[in-house]
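seq as requested:
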Amino acid sequence: MDARQIRGLQPMLARFLKRFDDCFDRRDTRAHLSVYVKGQLSDLPRKSVEPIALAADVPVRTLQEFLSQHRWQEDLARDRLQQIIAKEHTHAHSVGILDETSFVKKGDKTPGVQRQHLGTVGKQENGIVTVHLAYAAGDFHCLVDGELFLPESWARDRMRCREAKIPETMTYRPKTEIALELFDRARAHGIHFAWLTFDEWYGGKPAFLQALEGREQSFVAEVPRSLMGWIDPPRVTARPLRRRRGRGRKVPRIVAGSRPARSVEHLLWWHAVMKEQDWQRFRVKDGEKGPMIWEVKHVRFHLQGADGLPGPCWHLLVARNVLDPTEIKFFVSNAPPEASVGTILLVAFSRWRVERCFEDDKGEVGLDHYEGRRYPGLKRHLILSAISYLFLARTNQRLRGKKIRVDGLPSPHRRVGADSLVVAGGPRVGTAAGAHRPTHRAGPAPQCLCSSLPHQANSPTSAEHGHQIDTDSRL
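struct tokens:
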């Protein structure tokens, strides 16, 4: 970035923040928005209220009150953020990613703090957890929404909640319910997700998957190896099974004598369809040490629902790391039958985008620097951090001067291959990658399915490298 571009950021930021003017009734309160966002975008080593206020020559108490006490419409600010994303960053192949992050905290006053597993440090530690929804489209990604996970110990102690200004209506909810609320809110404000993806903790909850299916949202979910279901679904009957004593079995029910549901790991190693199927290799990523190769098996699969009955027919993908065959991942997707293995795999390996959002939002904006003791301040901090990050992402995209490239990721509601796939730096591929294939065997993936998206499993640093998924018989 040169000096001219740096000077140009001030008016750009002023124009961007002006779009949130109607969230503030008072001019003096509105002025603090600019102070806080500029502080988050600055090079301050610590971006909590005190250093931001001191750097801007603003009374610390005033900025603290702006965050936790002054009257302004933070919900409207969040809604405006989502409306901007929906209107100006819409993309036919967008991916939504649900995930959570955590912040280590000392003491017992931060809303929601307790000793719990924190993914940030990978162990039990004192801290808070927040659930987030990210949006990725082409070479752009940002955080759309976030909410505090309130532990049961807090929800039961209403006196403690009142001291932290946590609303009486806010109670303990599983993270899956929070995730659905974030998703519903984003869709209500016009954000369209061609796909949704998330890790195995969320993917291991059949009720959550069925809730997304009921919302007609296409998803690719990593699932635990213990997830239960069938490749060959049993018959279901409405006839009650009479017993000599007691009541008959509830209906509908699985026909007596049917094969029971099995875990996806059991199906991989013991079901004839999976055992007889050859592994198909894909180049998932070009890393610093060379290409990372995963091999895949694919079948159609019926998830066992909460009622014990087989659900709708979905895709089941098993991916094995060629360099480390002990690393095996399982994915299910409700994509249409004609969706290609390559397409589903590309979505499945897109979760690095939310990890990159967390890394940048913490490292560049100060997402984890909140030091207040009140929930309204934490909620506003999450919203303001998302606003700051959105400006950062938009500016980064604009200064790079790159157009959003087609990533080879078709809409789940269209036939894959109906449009030519654009290979970065290469020719068009016009083959019908998503032609319908027999359910007992995984057909060939696209000749070359490339993406402008990088991929990383855990470390954001690998985002510097190109992400592509190729099939190649020579691998």
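The mean pLDDT is 84.
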